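Researcher: Before we compare anything, I want clean individual predictions. No alignment, no superposition, just each chain on its own. First chain goes here; please echo the sequence and then give the C-alpha cells.
Model: Echoing the first chain and its structure:
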Amino acid sequence: MIKNFSILLSILCFSLVAKSQATEEYLDIQEQITEKKFAYFTRIRTADSLGYTCFEMRYLNGKLYFEGCVSKLDSKGSKGNVYVGACRWYHRNGQLKTTAVFNAEGKLHGLFAEYSDEGTELKRSEYKDGTAIATEDDKLAEDKKEVKHTYVDAFDDNKNDWDLFVSEKHSAVIEGGLLTLTSNTDMGVGRYIKNPMQSAFFEIELTIAAPTKKKAAAAKGIIYDFKDWSNYRYFFFYFYYFSIGLVRKGQQKKLADLLSSVHISANANVLSIHNKIDRCNFLINNKVVFRAKSIQPEFDKIGVVVGGKGSAQFDKLSIIEDLSRPAAFLTDESVKGTGSGFLINTSGYLITNYHVIEKANRIFVELPELNATFEAKEVISDKTNDLALLQIVDTAFRFTEEIVYGFSTKMEDVGAEAFTLGYPFVLSGLGREVKFADGKISSRTGYDNEVALYQTTVPIQPGNSGSPLFNSKAEVVGCVNAIFRNADNVSYAI
C-alpha cells in the first residue's frame, strides 16, 4: 500500500541586515571604490552589537548583491574584507548566488554553497576552520550516488543492429551520420531496436534533422514501450502539431491529439520524454508541451517512425536511466491515501499525523511548489498524540530556501484567529493546489477535555490531516488531526 503526501511549502525572502542611516559608497564592477558615475554597486554600512561591520551591497537597479558582516572592512573595496558569520551573495535577477559561513578569523567554517542564476545548486561543501570536511550527508550521497545507464546512437554505423532495408515501398538507411526513413506509400514506415527499460526514471531524446530538398514526411517521431504494431506508445509531430498516445491490443488511446505548438521548428527538432516517479513530461526543443501521469513501460523496444509519404532523417537517439532510484511508479491509481504535512527544516524533516502514515508500506512526499515528489521514511511516531516525524531520503532532494514560518510555544486564547493550508481531496477533484481555510480557536481543550488539543472552527476536509494550524502571526501553533462529525465546523489540532 502506497501513501502519497502533498507537503506545504511556502517560501518568502527576508533581509538579514537591518538598515540604519549610513553613508552610501560606490564600487565598480571589480568591487573597488569609485565615483558614482562609474558605479556598478552601492554599499551601505551599519554596526552590529558585537562590533563587527555589517553592510549590504546592491546593484544599481536596487536589487541585493551582498548581505553580511566583516571583522575587517577594506576601505578601498572588497578584496581585503575579512568576512565573519553567515554571508550571502546574489545574482542580478535576485537568485541566490553564494551562501557561506565564516569564523572570527575569516575562514570558511560551516556550509558553503553556490547556485546558478536559475536557482540550480552547483556546489555544496562543509568547512571547518577553512578546510573542507566530509559530512555524513556527503558519505550518504556517495553511498547513494546516481548510477546512470546511458544509450546513445549517433547513427555513425549500425552497431545497434537496426533493421535496414531498401524496397520499392519503403527504405531504412544509415549514411552520413543519419538514419533515413523513406516511405513511398501512405502507410508510413518505422524501425525499432531492443532496449529494455530498467528504471522508473528515464529520459528519451530524439533529434530529427532539418528537412532536405527531398520530400519531407509530414509526421515523424518516437515509438517506445513497443511490442508490436498493436502495442506501443508514440510521440510525434505533424507540421506544427504534435500527438501523444498509446496503442494496447490494437486499441488507441490519445493523450494529446494534434495540439499546436510554437516550439516546433521548420528546421531541426528535438523530441524528449522525461519520466519521473509522479509524472511524465513531453518536450519539444527543451520546452515542456504536455504533462501526463508516469509511464510504466511494459515492453522492451524503442524506435522511430515516419507517417505517410516522404522521408525523415534522424540525427541522434539517446536514453538515460537513473538506476539508483526506486523502480516503483507513483500514479494516482497506486496511491491508497493522502494527507498533508509541513517541513520543519531544510534537511527534509517534516511533520504529519501518525494516522496518515500508519498503514503505509511506502511514503512519498509531494512538494507542489517545486513540482517534485520524493520518497520519505518514518523517523519516529507518537501514536497517542497522533504525530509522525518523517524525513525525505531521496538523494535528489535539495531545498536551499529558508523555512519562513515560525513556531509558537504560547497557548492561543479562545477566540483567536487561526487558519490552515493543506491539500484536501487531492485525488478526488480538488487538485494539487494548496487550499486555505480559516476560523477561530473555540476551546483550549479538545474532545473529552483533551488538554493536548485545540478545538477550532476551521473547516477541515479529508486530506487536511497533518496540515499546520497557524495563528494570526503566521506561526505554527498546532497540527490539524481530526473533526467532530456530529457538529458543524468543529475540528481539532494537536
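Researcher: Okay. Second chain, same rules.
Model: Second chain and its structure:
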Amino acid sequence: MTRNLGASNAMDIYISGLVPEIGEAGLMKLFSAVGKVDSLRLIRDRLSGAPTGYAVVDMVTVDGAERAIQVFNGKSVLGSPIIVSKSRPKSKSHH
C-alpha cells in the first residue's frame, strides 16, 4: 500500500509479536476498528519472504494511533500478545 505523504498529522505505529496468520487484511480490519488506517506494511524476511511478526501501520490521525496503542498494546491477537507503540521517527540529521 502507498503512503499519503500529504497527511501531516498522521502517525506510524509499530507492532510486534504478530502471528503469520494475521495477514494484511486481518491487520487492516483490526486497526480500522479504532481509527482510519492510511497504510500498513507487514515486515518480511528479505531472503525467504516469510512474515517476521512485525508491522508498521500508518494511522490517519494521532488520536487514532494513540487509541490503537491503548486498545491493543499487550492484547492477545490470534493467541499471541502483541506490542503496539509509536514508531520512532527517522533521523534526518547528517552528523
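Researcher: What stands out in the second chain?
Model: The CA atoms of residues 10 and 60 lie 5 Å apart. Additionally, The radius of gyration is 13 Å.
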